[in-house]
TrEMBL record:
Protein name: diguanylate cyclase
Lineage: Bacteria, Pseudomonadati, Pseudomonadota, Betaproteobacteria, Neisseriales
Organism: Chitinilyticum piscinae
UniProt-listed SMART domains: GGDEF (SM00267), TPR (SM00028)
Listed EC numbers: 2.7.7.65
Sequence ranges assigned to domain GGDEF in this UniProt record: 400-530
Reaction equation(s) it catalyzes: 2 GTP = 3',3'-c-di-GMP + 2 diphosphate
Length: 530
């Protein structure tokens, strides 16, 4: 079976396409006139279609790709089928048509299997990973991307390798595994030196690197990297990258409270994203524009942005496969729809401010639901990531102390094993209540893992943190646990504390508290280590 990728003239055209899609398209048209071989002609047609996509003509690209796909299927050219499906899937994903993208990549996988095309398989894994990423299943996305790393090893395709490692970096960033993200970016960067798409991938790389910087509170470096990413994406007409970089820039300036600059970046992000039908990017830009307008008390504008944000959210979710979305999200969405309808019918007789407040409350309710641990009612780990980053930023800006506690129930497995899982659950709930009773309103309590809790203490130095930790530890050890189970006589906890040090990242701070917790366990449990 002919491996089209090995047709030298096609390979050269691919390289040209990376630098100059318009020139590649013209060259492919010229070659078409001279070639009679049906495989070669089809490969050229496909390449022309891909050029349309690279030039941002997605409707035309989709039409041409679908035609090429039909012909490739008729002729049993599975490699070309895989390639066309890969491109079609990418367009679907960019538009937020998650379900369609997933189906295309699964079909791409089948076609690649039929021809034993490693390129096709790598692309399918890469793409399926992107879909899972878009669905928020970052762990599963990472697995798919790692699989494509394995498969691509023998291909020695630098461009593909940089693309895969960029995806991996994005997964790790979402999983808050910053060190791994950093390594993935370094590998992507190594590969970039030999890739025909250096600027496109480099702009993406800079965006991810800026996210790592932001995670570490290095805001100014993040701004510089994003400026460079915007410059590259603009020069290369990489619309998606441009929109993404503007969005991230808007986000960083927003955190830095430079609202006017943030707004101008976000307006570009939103319009760029709109022009390429990237609902996901547009939605995020509109959400931030809404927050900025509200903060500046420009309520009329805020309402417009919120409307657009809600519309896009609904559109995105509507596009997703119903089975891929868990029932809670769907219920939340239905509620959001009715809320929107309600807001519209109230339009005439309520003031702008009142309507905004109702949107705000609704969003607040959704946010609380998404950030709450259902068993204990305290915040979950997802909420912690967000909050911790903000607290670190505030503490640094105000030069105010900040500490956190990491707390773990001792020998909790024995509670489950001896008295049942239900008793274990009741213990977890009671521990959460007892912690709450020892904390102030602004002290943020989260269930970090199974029987582990993290508590954020804004304004607390090391001594105060130790004092609060001891108060919680004693409260729990003195509690009448037999009320939960007659044979449960004692229950203790171990705590590690850490006070924020200058220049420390969220990851470092958590790691230090974790190390102290480990010391407390190793030292015999039922104690606090600082
Ligand atoms: N009941 C209940 N148990 C849970 C939940 N989440 C995690 N666990 C259990 O928590 C236990 C944690 O056990 P280990 O990590 O071995 O720790 P441990 O027994 O507390 O021992 P040390 O931490 O070393 O003192 C496991 O048995 C988990 O199954 C939950 O939501 N409910």
């Amino acid at each position: 079976m002919l491996i089209v990728h090995e047709l030298p003239f096609i390979y050269q055209l691919h390289e040209l396409m990376a630098r100059d899609p318009a020139a590649a398209q013209a060259e492919a048209a010229a070659q078409m006139a001279t070639r009679a071989d049906p495989v070669e002609r089809l490969a050229l047609r496909l390449l022309q279609a891909i050029c349309h996509a690279r030039l941002g003509n997605y409707v035309q690209a989709e039409y041409e790709l679908t035609r090429a796909l039909r012909q490739a299927k008729q002729r049993g050219m599975h490699y070309l089928v895989a390639e066309a499906r890969d491109e079609l899937a990418a367009i679907c994903l960019m538009r937020g048509q998650i379900d369609a993208a997933l189906r295309q990549w699964l079909d791409c996988f089948d076609a690649a299997l039929q021809e034993d095309s490693r390129f096709g398989l790598v692309r399918a894994h890469l793409g399926i990973g992107k879909v899972l990423f878009a669905l928020g299943k970052h762990d599963e996305a990472k697995e798919q991307h790692l699989r494509s790393v394995e498969l691509s090893y023998a291909l020695k395709d630098n461009s593909m390798n940089s693309a895969i490692h960029l995806c991996l970096a994005a997964d790790y960033l979402k999983l808050a595994e910053f060190d791994r993200a950093y390594v993935a970016l370094a590998i992507a960067e190594d590969n970039l030196a030999h890739s025909p798409y250096p600027d496109k991938h480099r702009s993406e790389l800079l965006i991810y690197r800026s996210q790592i910087r932001a995670g570490r509170g290095e805001w100014h470096k993040a701004v510089n990297e994003l400026d460079e990413a915007i410059r590259m994406a603009t020069a290369g007409h990489y619309n998606w990258h441009h929109a993404f970089a503007e969005l991230e820039s808007g986000r960083v300036h927003f955190v830095l409270n430079r609202l006017a600059t943030a707004r101008s970046h976000l307006l570009i992000a939103s319009s760029k994203a709109h022009s390429i039908a990237s609902h996901l990017l547009e939605m995020q830009a509109e959400e931030l524009l809404y927050s900025i307008s509200k903060q500046e008390q420009r309520y009329e504008e805020a309402l417009v942005h919120h409307r657009r944000y809600t519309e896009l959210t609904l559109e995105l979710i509507d596009n997703q496969n119903r089975h891929q979305i868990d029932p809670t999200t769907r219920r939340r969405l239905r509620r959001m729809e009715s809320e929107l309808a309600l807001a519209q019918s109230e339009q005439e007789n309520s003031s702008l401010m009142a309507r905004l407040q109702s949107h705000e409350q609704h969003i607040q309710a959704l946010k609380i639901e998404a950030e709450t641990d259902p068993l204990t009612g305290v915040f979950n780990r997802r909420a912690l990531e967000d909050r911790l980053q903000r607290e670190l930023y505030t503490a640094t800006q105000l030069s105010r102390p900040f500490s956190l506690l990491m707390l773990d129930i001792d020998h909790f497995k024995q509670v489950n094993d001896r008295f049942s899982h239900l008793t274990g659950d009741a213990v977890l709930k009671t521990v959460a209540e007892l912690i709450q009773s020892c904390c102030r309103q602004d002290e943020f309590i989260t269930r970090y893992g199974g029987e582990e809790f993290v508590i954020l203490l804004p304004g607390a130095g090391a001594d105060t943190a130790r004092h609060i930790a001891e108060r919680i530890r004693l409260k729990i050890s003195h509690h009448d646990w037999f009320t939960l189970h007659p044979e449960l006589l004692t229950l203790t906890i171990s705590i590690g504390t850490a006070e924020l040090q200058a220049g420390e990242s969220t990851h470092d701070l958590l790691a230090r508290a974790d190390a102290h917790l480990y010391q407390a366990k190793a030292g015999g449990r039922n104690r606090t280590c600082c």
